[in-house]
Amino acid sequence: MWPANKKIRVMVIDDSMLARKMIVDGLSRSPRIEVVGTAFNAQDAMSKVAQLRPDVITSDVEMPGMSGIDFLKKLLPRHPLPVILVSSLNLRVFDALSAGAVDFVRKPEPGKNEEFIKALTLKVISAAGAKVRRASQTAAQPAGGPLTPQLLGPKPALDRVIIGLGASTGGTEATLEVLKRLPKDIPGM
Q1: Contact yes or no for 63/87 (Cβ under 8 A)
Q2: DSSP letter assigned to residue 135
Q3: Which of 19, 61, 108, 147 could form a disulfide with 14 if both were Cys (CB 3.0 to 4.6 A apart)?
Q4: For the chain, what is the radius of gyration of the CA atoms?
Q5: 91 phi, psi to nearest 5 deg
């Protein structure tokens, strides 16, 4: 949990000057957030992260040169920070989460900027408390190998079983690891 009396230092990365300004202006309205810097692409961001020392980064996904997902793969081993990816396309959400993003927000449709800013602000506040681990700290495979399902009786009626799985912000990496290890014939989830 982020201390209420400490502002969350945010860096905004977006190749669109208009999107960058909208995000900076919107996040700056929150008394809990301080935007400490911006970058116009991933390379610009890499050169600024160590100097600005943000607590959370928001990053566009589709940018010239290096995508936001490739940026994550380079950033997180050196600087394990919570990153929220922002994109007009939601096709790469799982790519973003598997690369280490703590969350994903879709850019707003015309006229929906306020809803977008409210959602992004809440996600930044939640992400500030996320514990992001360096890639070397995550286990590639559990000691016992893949998870094996526990049967529900001698002949379980799997067509009547529903599985629920939830996680808060910061739990997306753990959720992804669980999902990757589930058997292919698992009941509805």
Answers
A1: no
A2: G
A3: 19
A4: 19
A5: -70, -25
CA distance 73 to 77: 7
pLDDT digit string, tens, across residues 139-169: 444 444 454 545 445 555 555 666 777 776 6
The Cα–Cα gap between 66 and 40 comes to 11
The residue with tokens 């995508």 is 67
- Rounded distance between C-alpha atoms, residue 79 and residue 53, angstroms: 9
User: CA 124, 28, 14, 38 torsion: positive or negative?
Assistant: negative
- Contact predicate 123/112, CB 8 Å: no
Which tokens sit at 174? Answer: 């753990």
pTM for this one? 0.72
Which residues are CB-contacts of 181 (< 8 A; sequence separation ≥ 6)? 142, 146, 147
Give 12-33 pLDDT, tens digit per residue. 999 999 999 999 999 999 999 9
State how far the Cα of 184 lies from the Cα of 187, in Å rounded to an integer.
9
Which two three-digit tokens encode residue 113? 């900027």
What are the structure tokens assigned to 163, written together? 């599985």
Pairing of strands 83-87, 103-106: parallel
Residue 10: which H helix or E strand, with range? strand 8-13
Give the count of beta carbons closer than 10 Å to the beta carbon of residue 40: 16
